[in-house]
Amino acid sequence: MEKSVSRAEVSVEETWDLRPIFETEEAFEAAFAKVEQEADAFVARYHGKWTSAKQVNEALTAYANLFAPVERIEAYASLQVEEDTSNKNNAQREARTASRLAILGKKLAFVPITLAHMEEGIREEAARLMPEHARYLARLAKDKAHFLSRETEAALAAMAPTLAAPEQIYADSKFGDTVFPPFTVNGKTVQMTYNTFENRYETETDYALRHRAAEVFYGELSRHRHVTASAYNARVQQEKIEADLRGYDSVFSFLLADQEVPRELYDRQIDIIMQDLAPIMQKYARLLQSVYNLPSMTSYDLKLELDPTFVSHVSYEEAATYIKDGLSILGEDYVKMLSQAFNERWIDYAENKGKCTGAFCADVYGVHPYILTSFNYRMDEVATLAHELGHAGQSVLTCAAQPYLNKEMSLYMVESPSTTNELIMENYLLQKAGNNKRERRWVLSQMLSKTYYHNFVTHLLEAAYQREVYRIVDRGGSVDADDLSGIYRDVLTRFWGDAVEIKDGSTLTWMRQPHYYNGLYSYTYFAGLTVGTQMALRLMASSGADGKGDGASGKAVGTDQNEVGRNDLATGEDHAGGSDRQAVIDSWRSFLAAGGSLDPIAQAALVGVDITTDKPLKDTIAYIGSIVDELVELS
Q1: Residue 568: pLDDT over 80
Q2: What average pLDDT is seen over the chain?
Q3: Which of 171, 199, 421, 582 is deepest in the core (most CB within 10 A)?
Q4: Phi then psi for 190, rounded to 5 degrees?
Q5: Residue 368 phi, psi (nearest 5)
Q6: Which residues contact 415 (CB under 8 A, 6 or more apart)?
Q7: Closest Cα partner for 318 from 368, 381, 274?
Q8: Residue 522 phi, psi dihedral angles, 5° rounding
Q9: What is the tens place of the pLDDT at every residue in 400-441?
Q10: What's the gap between Cα 146 and its chain centre?
Q11: pTM, two decimal places
Q12: Closest by CA position to 520, among listed 454, 578, 441, 466
């Protein structure tokens, strides 16, 4: 039987090093006590009405200086839980941290509401005197009508740990109660975990093993469907109640406010992709069925790769080389950051029991980002690493360019740096493939099955499902396990049509994703990838290599279609069009460094993308269609 290892059995080289955050537990506690003391001093000095721009800027500077170490405290507590959810000491530390930070939040809740309701002239003068505060002050002024009283805001801040209970219940059910029973296929006994299903068995080429693993996986999930549904319903009901309390006309307006994009843009993203991308992906599903000679194409077969044996094993060191070579176009300092991430243990890539599923990148202001994943030694995980390192690169560049209050990029744009990294690396691999048809087919299939399938299809289906849930909640309704499975089945059926048989287990996909507890997050993946695709196409056009045809035509969907010469993305060696390419790279680095200093529309404009129209989205869908068409030809 294949063994699942505990955290203690994992090699230290496969784990992240959290000592740069705090060297010891004692250092963590000392820093926490200092922040609490400084918060009390801040309240004593600044609580009350601010009557001058100088007071405003002094208070905001002190406020930011308070929250920078808070981010380190939160990271130290939460990251240790993510690496091993079964560790009781880690869980207790995180719970204590959340309670103490809630008290801190209650004390400081007066700051945003005071700034929002102050005299406009004082706020404008403060922004003029310290432009680094202008964006933060402007956003508070815009949200003025939706602030509650000081007492109510303080009460909500104090209740933060209990308001986070739905997501904690979901996590406890997922990591504490969900245990997959061993099963036997072809005489081999398999002990499966959440991570091994998602990283290995869901893409397993052996039909019997893949389908049996899915049956066991979803069978165990089904046992917990009612508690998970109750937790999720509690979360969406919370959001609806808060939307009403704050005077928003709908829960959608409330959830989109922080993203700074209109409802029309949100709906358009979902509607156009459901309509225009669906037939393209149905064509791809039929291709998979043909290649694998499947009697019928089912939802358990959609994660198959077209050519899984072309590169069957990738070491961690090889992954690092792929990524650094592929992303070298972004500059020497960017490659240096990548080397630090791999060499200085920014990345936790072990696969152990109790580890959080999926992958993420956590900012730690004043230290460096940290990445969690479970490396499966396959090429799809190289794309995942490139994705998370895209978040890391954005964090490093933003923290170097922006003050703390402008650090957070809009949620709408947050997946652009990550998805663009995937595409840049994959187009580098396309160039390396040259005229080798099998290698080219393999790279294109990776691009489609990993980057576009995950970010455009998986998250689209989640977003379409979420929209239906919030429509019910907005009308005053609630949802249970049967409702959620029914909604998900309907979304899957509408998207895949008669090309794919929807298995009952797949209707439980709503149980797999923690993103649902973060509002309208899922749709931002394909919003980000739309910007990322246009960025990658501009890079290809400016270097004369579009990854299509002979690999050096310079043509790209959604560009001016001009041939501008050839460039080697791996070496940065210019043959023609180098200045064009550098201008594109510079604009992208400006995008990455902008952080939260711009709204999403202005930030996308930095790289020549107008997200107020549907053209970037339609161009991206057309590009995906061209990849599927070529895969059909090459197959």
Answers
A1: no
A2: 91
A3: 421
A4: -115, 130
A5: -170, 170
A6: 455, 524, 525, 527, 528, 529, 532
A7: 381
A8: -55, -40
A9: 999 999 999 999 999 999 999 999 999 899 988 989 999 999
A10: 27
A11: 0.89
A12: 466
